[in-house]
From TrEMBL:
Taxonomic lineage of the native organism: Bacteria, Bacillati, Bacillota, Bacilli, Bacillales
Domain of life: Bacteria
Keywords assigned: Membrane, Transmembrane, Transmembrane helix
Pfam families reported in the protein's UniProt record: ABC_transp_aux, DUF7088
Name of protein: GldG family protein
Domain ABC-type uncharacterised transport system: from-to ranges: 176-374
Residues annotated as transmembrane: 12-34, 442-464
Protein's organism: Paenibacillus wenxiniae
Length: 469
């Protein structure tokens, strides 16, 4: 009787173990795209912008990858692996791979002559050359990825996500960058303009002196780092544009004569309850990794900054004007960037030109706000006013969260809320390991033969002990 009970228990336990294994297998399979990224800086985790872009795809998209077999496999593998991750997020994006040499007619149909990803939705297509997704310190102009050095950075996620955005979004916006006051022009802000263009916000320069009005198709008017004041006539035109529901992105620049010469710029800001102190914000030495005139401000709580704060991506401001806020009826004014309590406002602007930043009794006590988002009482965006502009220059905009903050601000103003987000960053190259033949043989033997035999041996030992008992 005891032996029968023992065998029955063993059978029940075995069936239970098999059942648990089957249930666990089904559960893990149901997780689908679940995975854990253990790489440094979460290198293999898709950005917030990529995920939101993929989830917004409602109609099927084909990603046709044309591969030249002569290209290095490591390059094409980066691209195909990334597209498979895209497919896991939304299976409406279907990935197909073609050999460029074996499918010449299909390649010719899409104008493809080298390794390229062609994104297609309906009749619309977007071609992205694979070698443009890689940059290498040893790569020369005109040299493709197959002959570049083994050291590279990969911008595939940036390129592919931007391509999907332009392919799947039919709505476009128009941003006009004011000129005529020694502001930053498109060439100084070309990286910013390029990113805005990839998010369907086209940037053009505007001379009010020539056109006499803000164009009717303007989604936002940008005034970036003016060095002279607006004329009375220009101010009147801009205020008319704003009164009709126009959006303003005003980003100040350092100017020694601002206090006495910026009457109309100050007037525009006063419409939103914002006052220019005409003092440059300074952080005392030892409070930052940077010089005292370069500040890493804290973020206020707003949709422009919330994701940046959560990701610890900071905006780095330099030569920024301290701003003040007063309540304005019918408006909500939200601080975006704030200095520490140890900061002060340098009033001696002429002294700054001689590198004099010592605090004295004439200076203003901090903390200060360096930027505001202005909305109507019902939450509709009206303006973003910033105390500095240098963070948007080509040489600075790739630092930390500078690009995301600038582009988020413009997207907020034009109402493109889905793109108030975190964008993909450059990725380092694949880390590969080269195995010798003995190492490969040892791994094969241990995983295919030794480990399974150990489990079998353990099972036999447990069975033998139970039988003896």
């Amino acid at each position: 009787m005891g032996k029968w009970i023992s065998r029955t228990n063993a059978t029940v336990i075995s069936i239970a173990a098999i059942g648990i294994f089957i249930v666990l297998t089904l559960f893990l399979n149901s997780l689908g795209s679940f995975q854990v990224d253990l790489t440094k800086n979460r290198q293999n985790t898709l950005s917030d912008q990529t995920i939101s872009t993929l989830k917004a795809i409602n109609e099927p998209v084909e990603a046709m990858v044309f591969i030249n077999p002569q290209d290095a496999q490591v390059y094409t593998r980066e691209v195909t692996d990334l597209l498979q991750e895209y497919h896991k997020i939304n299976n409406k994006l279907e990935v197909k791979q073609y050999d460029l040499l074996q499918n010449p007619e299909l390649a010719r149909q899409y104008g493809v002559t080298e390794s390229t990803v062609v994104l297609k939705q309906g009749e619309r297509t977007k071609a992205i050359q694979i070698y443009n997704m890689f940059t290498s310190p040893d790569q020369q102009d005109g040299q493709d990825a197959s002959t570049a050095a083994s050291s590279y950075q990969f911008s595939g996620e940036q390129k592919l996500t931007s391509g999907l955005l332009s392919l799947t979004s039919s709505k476009t916006y128009k941003a006009y960058l004011l000129n005529g006051h020694n502001e930053f022009d498109v060439s100084t802000l070309s990286l910013l303009a390029q990113q805005l263009g990839e998010e369907n916000i086209n940037v053009s320069e505007l001379s009010l002196a020539q056109q006499g009005a803000v164009p009717a198709d303007a989604s936002v008017l940008m005034i970036v780092a003016p060095q002279t004041d607006l004329s009375d006539a220009e101010t009147k035109v801009i205020r008319q544009y704003m009164d009709k529901g126009g959006k303003l992105f005003l980003s100040l620049g350092f100017n020694e004569k601002a206090k006495t010469a910026w009457k109309n710029l100050d007037l525009l800001m006063s419409d939103y309850g914002i006052t220019d102190t005409h003092a440059v914000a300074v952080e005392p030495k030892g409070q930052s990794l940077y010089d005292p005139l370069t500040i890493v401000p804290e973020y206020g709580s707003h949709e422009i900054t919330d994701k940046l704060a959560a990701s610890h991506l900071y905006t780095i401001m330099s030569l920024s004007i301290a701003l003040k806020q007063e309540a304005k009826q019918g408006l909500t004014v939200t601080p975006l960037l704030t200095t520490t309590a140890n900061s002060y406002g340098e009033m001696n602007l002429s002294g700054l030109l001689e590198s004099k930043t010592e605090r004295d009794n004439n200076d203003l006590a901090g903390p200060f706000d360096l930027g505001f988002a202005v909305g109507s009482s019902d939450g509709k965006p009206k303006a973003v006013v910033l105390g500095g502009s240098t963070f948007m220059m080509n040489q600075s905009i790739q630092q930390q969260g500078n690009l995301d903050f600038a582009v988020n601000s413009i997207n907020y103003l034009v109402g493109n809320d889905s793109q108030v987000t975190i964008r993909p960053k450059m990725e380092d190259q694949y880390q590969t390991a080269t195995l010798t033949l003995p190492q490969a043989r040892a791994i094969l033997i241990s995983t295919v033969i030794v480990f399974p035999l150990l489990f079998v041996a353990a099972g036999i030992f447990l069975w033998w002990r139970r039988r003896r008992a």
